[in-house]
Design goal:
single chain, six-stranded parallel β-sheet, two-stranded antiparallel sheet, 18 helices, 8 strands, 7% strand
């Protein structure tokens, strides 16, 4: 009894740290502290669990030490070797690990019960236990395979040994493009119904292993088909939803093994991830159903082509010409997009901002909620470059200030600054909240080409009278601007 009380107190303290950590994550200024509190809570939960397993002789000390050593080694390697540009893929992979771990625990629990004959008699206990195990497996396996698909889409392909070879005969990453025929969504619905039916069969025949393995197979396939039709630009929403699903799977697993901290932490992660998912859908003016079915938006008929929008109107500028704009600029706003991450230009952009401030300009960063490839992607990149939190302005706060802004620098962003969202009701992004940079006095767009964003439509901002295009890699352009300003 005393030991049980000690474990419950440890789990309670761990849950309190999780709650405080999530609270701190609500503000960029306190987010690092919140992240640390969450890490301390997880460390405490792991230590309490390991101590409980050892004292109750569930596993030996050698397995506990081996598990900790492997986990610490893998985690440290990932944390130190993965670049900030690879953080979206890492987050997706971690979501998959969380879901897979929950599914494996549920599978182990049910197989262990079958082997030992510890199957509850028919009744409420059987229904509650086997439903929790089934849902843990369903959500967990979907999260695992779906997250692996999301990671591959974010990375641009999948490493498949002994298949596609490069010119030197080495295995290479194989692209797995978006694929969404009309019949795919009904197939996903049928797979979901089949998985739920298999859960009911495991309850009716709790000693039949075949239904358990079939549930794992259908769930894994459902996870793959769940993510296949979704484009890369929608990955922030998908990653957020998969994060929520990993928490839900953990909560179900907590009910299975009667672990309070898993129930509490899983419920919080599930709720927080789901709230963030809907916030991001609102920022894109799209429903979650629209995102998950792979649809970009309404069909566009008779929309202007790129040649009609850009022909004879795009004004290209050199770094020296752009540098001249800053001589009289009192307010400058920098709008980062995914191109900032691709070019790893965050440090160069920070240096550019510092240089402009040293010359008397007020510099801020305008952050769109869905810019990048994961929730808060731009915030993370700029934080890595030590950009002050108070310089990061959210869309609703910064939009009213663009009319008083002398120069806006857009680096690698496209649809989040496309004015047709406000002017063309037939556009795929119609009604999507955007950063209204077109209201500024001058706009400088740093982009390698005039290629469209995920919506596949041209951006009239690039051809506006007040816009100058600086065609270049983001990092190279920033460094050239710094040199040109210093030489001016």
């Amino acid at each position: 009894m005393v030991d049980s009380v000690i474990w419950d107190i440890g789990y309670l303290a761990s849950a309190a740290l999780f709650i405080l950590g999530i609270k701190k994550l609500s503000s960029p200024r306190t987010a690092p502290q919140g992240n640390r509190l969450g890490a301390y809570g997880m460390l405490l939960a792991v230590l309490v669990t390991m101590a409980k397993m050892y004292t109750e002789e569930i596993v030996g000390l050698e397995l506990i030490v081996a598990g900790l050593a492997i986990g610490i080694t893998v985690g440290a390697l990932m944390a130190t070797r993965v670049e900030m540009t690879g953080m979206p893929e890492l987050v997706a992979l971690f979501n998959g690990f969380g879901g897979g771990a929950s599914a494996l625990v549920g599978l182990s629990e049910v197989l262990g019960r079958l082997q030992s004959g510890d199957v509850p008699p028919s009744g409420i206990e059987l229904y509650a236990t086997w439903i929790a195990i089934g849902l843990s497996g369903l959500v967990g396996w979907v999260t695992l395979t779906g997250s692996l698909m999301a990671m591959g889409k974010l990375k641009g392909g999948f490493y498949i040994p002994f298949t596609s070879k490069d010119e030197r005969g080495r295995s290479k990453w194989v692209s797995f493009p978006t694929w969404g025929p009309p019949w795919l969504n009904p197939v996903k619905g049928l797979l979901l119904l089949a998985s739920l039916y298999l859960i009911s069969l495991t309850i009716q025949h709790p000693d039949n292993h075949d239904y358990i393995y079939a549930l794992a197979a259908t769930s894994c396939l459902l996870g793959v088909l769940f993510v296949i039709p979704i484009g890369g630009a929608d990955m922030p929403v998908v990653v957020s939803l998969l994060n929520s699903m990993s928490g839900i799977a953990a909560a179900f697993t907590g009910f299975v093994i009667q672990n309070n901290v898993l129930i509490i932490a899983g419920s919080m992660v599930g709720a927080a991830g789901l709230i963030l998912t809907f916030i991001m859908c609102k920022a894109m003016n799209r429903s979650l159903t629209n995102v998950l079915t792979g649809a970009i938006g309404p069909e566009v008929e008779g929309g202007a082509s790129a040649d009609e929008v850009y022909a004879g109107r795009v004004k290209s500028a050199s770094p020296e010409e752009v540098a001249m704009l800053f001589d009289s600029a009192r307010r400058v706003v920098i709008v980062p997009g995914y191109g900032l991450a691709v070019s790893q230009a965050q440090h160069a952009i920070r240096d550019l901002a510092n240089l402009l401030e040293s010359q008397g300009a007020e510099v801020e960063f305008a952050i769109h909620p869905v810019a990048g490839r994961m929730p808060g992607h731009m915030n993370v990149l700029l934080a890595e470059a030590d950009v002050a939190y108070d310089k990061l302005r959210e869309m609703d706060d910064v939009n009213p200030t663009f009319a008083e802004t002398d120069v806006v620098i857009v680096i690698g962003a496209n649809d989040v600054v496309n004015p047709v969202a406000n002017t063309d009701p037939a556009s795929p992004i119609a009604g999507m909240p955007i950063l209204e940079v077109d209201k500024a006095r001058t706009v400088v767009v740093i982009k390698r080409s005039l290629s469209p964003g995920f919506a596949g439509i041209p951006n009239p901002l690039f051809a506006a009278d007040k816009t100058l295009m600086l065609f270049s890699d983001g990092k190279k352009a920033a460094l050239e601007l710094i040199s040109a300003i210093k030489e001016a």
